[in-house]
Design a protein that fits this description.
The protein is mainly β. The protein has one helix and 15 strands; from the N terminus they run ββββββββββββαβββ. The longest helix is centred in the last third of the chain and has 14 residues.
Length: 324
Amino acid sequence: YTAGSHTVGLSGYYGRRKEKIPNITTVQDDPNLTYYLMSGMEAADGTTGGYKGFNREWVHHTIGATLAYGYKGSAFSSLTTAGINRGEEYVYETYKREPGRYYDYDYSLHSQNRLQQQGLLHQLDLQADYRQGYADEYRQQLQIENDPQTGYTSYSYETLITFKKRYQVRRFDFNLHYRLNFTCQQAVTGYVGLRADISTVRDKHLLPESHLKLTATDWQLESGKALLKDQRLWIDASAGYHHASRADLSLADASTDYAQQVLLPDMEYYRANYWQGRIAVTCQLPLTIKQTRTLWFVRAYGQYLKTNNNLDGRTVGLSFGIFN
């Protein structure tokens, strides 16, 4: 609905995703090779030699709604959206056995703002997202029933115990992005900007309790410049700092293989503070194929990352593709 410079919109959606692994038999039967089914944190059941006739199916349902408000003036325009959705994932194995069920709730608040001035375009984007998820875990027993009249045998599973919210996930992300664009005849010829990100993660597994708590902040300065008048050759550079203010891991059983080989070694990465810099040169190539005009690009880039431990990194690459 639009009235003058104001617009209000409401949308709803439903999604269904299905994924199936039918009758898997692992190729490797090395007695030293272990396959794991993970149910949260260090809780992982290992099987030596793999699986024979393993079946698993996931069916995920999502329903949500988004409320949007837009304003468009002569120099200033903005779009603000608030959304919520709920997801539920069913997991089935042989004879419809359910090891558990996963639920998630997503909340979002986004704001995009633009201010046009003489030769300048101010861009301010704010984004906040919160996810809350949990998994119920079931203990089930196989029920076998024989029908003497038809001779048919039916198989089903009965749920004996339900661990409510045994595995819990919480994540919050906040992003602020400001960019000052320099324009000439409505075309952007360069920019400078600032980006700030805050993220927190809380994972918990109950009975017994294990948890992972992470908090990190990222700051980044960015700049770019068109090297040709037609804006087809760009150079972009950015520099930033990542600060891990919290990285705590508490395991009920730190002696498991998964804890020793994955979770505990990963903490070195979560606890790392680092500086990083990136520079890229992009060339835009407009092409017409079968009377369809497309805009291709070729980009050469390099990145350097310096940490407070031994996890430094260097990257040099070349990429090409199509602007969508």
